[in-house]
Amino acid sequence: xxxxxxxxxxxxxxxxxxxxESLLATLVAELDRLTLxxxxxxxxxxxxxxxxxxxxTFEKIRTLEPQYFTYQAIRxxxxxxxxVAILAGIQHARGxxxxxxxxxxxxxxxxxxxxxxxxxxxxxxxWAVRRSRGDRWLDRIFSHLFxxxxxxxxxxxxxxxxxxxxxxxxxxxxxxxxxxxxSHITGQILWSGFRQTRIFYDRQRRRQGKSGWSFWKKVExxxxxxxxxxxxxxxxxxxxxxxxxxxxxxxxxxxxIGRLTLQILVPGWTALMVVTLLIGGFQLIFLGxxxxxxxxxxxxxxxxxVYIVMEKIER
Length: 315
Known about the structure:
The chain is α/β, with parallel strands linked by helices. The chain has ten helices and eight strands. The chain folds into two domains: 9-230 and 307-314, Spore Coat Polysaccharide Biosynthesis Protein SpsA, Chain A; 232-301. It is elongated and about 90 Å long.
């Protein structure tokens, strides 16, 4: 009789999909190859998450006949964005360990095995941290600025970005208990603590298709992450407000002295307009920053579900 210590662990690979109709054949072939190559180490379960695609992605999933892995697929009612899709996949995954693989295969599938090996000494989280990336120069610049900013705010955040991870079941349970909207799964895992390690890799060029992340979606993500995991914007507004108040007080004293000594007979229109516009502009910035936090509070207290599952397949 097989004892519990000899039971083979199960690895769940979450694959978020968005307009992936043309990518599925290549993706399934890579997953089959990966499963066959490492079947001696773990059983493999694939969790496909269709993040509100309007093409035939989910219909194509129905016809899949993989040779070496079992899979389940869920279809979200609309596009909830990739990080929510990953969270949905984690909630439906049944594995002892969970990772994810992007549909475009810019992260080589071999990273799954490297992450698995990195966890074995007793870690709960393994990160795949980029050494370099084969994207367009504009994407590289934006990514560099975003991750450098997050690293400056939060030193545990990888300075070059981490696009893949593998977590143990206890970490997954903590993530699922959070139920946070407008969040970022990287920040949630870092915040949770646990024993963490890193491997490094070079991100490949996109084989086919194009990214669903537009420039403004990336800006929205950056704002959401900074507001969710840092008080820096609020504190910056406070400090700037104090500085402006101090400068205004000093300027007021100077004007009063000039008036009393008859050096200022008529207040200058230009100076008045500059001060008014400057203060007004900063006030609008402060209100916008406070509004970002208030909107997130409002979104949380409404208690709407983080995502909605419209359909599910299990094979």
